[in-house]
Amino acid sequence: MSRLVTISTSSFPLLDTGQRATVERNRTVAVDLATEAGERGSDMFALLETFSDMHSMGGADETPKFAEPIPGPTSDALSQVAKRYGMYILCPIHYLEPDGTVRNTCAILDRRGDVVGMHHKTHPMMVESQDASIKPGKDIPVFSCGA
Q1: Structural domain range at position 126
Q2: CATH code of the domain covering residue 113
Q3: Are 109 and 79 in contact (CB under 8 A)?
Q4: Alpha-carbon separation of residue 107 from 2, 13, 36, 59 (angstroms)
Q5: pTM attached to this predicted model
Q6: Is residue 138 domain-resident?
Q7: 114 lies in a domain?
Q8: How many domains does the chain have?
Q9: pLDDT for 51-60, tens place per residue?
């Protein structure tokens, strides 16, 4: 049986010139945006790529200090929203693997707030590939998102 689904996307508010964001501020903004999507009845909410450290770094060489594990503070905060509203959330952050490898990764949180999969970006942009600390993914996984 087919049905219509509602997918919401997001953009972050701009900061004043010279201001730097923090991961904590970006996490709060992401939770607020996800909550708004949930209140509007979204089935899936997609955040923008590596939103958690956006506007917080001075340069790509700072990426490792902003990377975090999954589960971790950002995915945990968003998993609570996914669970509360019964929606999927795409949570793309700089992921710190247990061995210290950093990847541009999108965690897929299901309606229960569980991590059901992760996609590691396979084709980094030039600025990412110049940063030796970010490793590309090797495959393109497919995840089932049930009703």
Answers
A1: 7-13+20-130
A2: 3.60.110.10
A3: yes
A4: 25, 22, 20, 24
A5: 0.90
A6: no
A7: yes
A8: 1
A9: 888 766 666 6
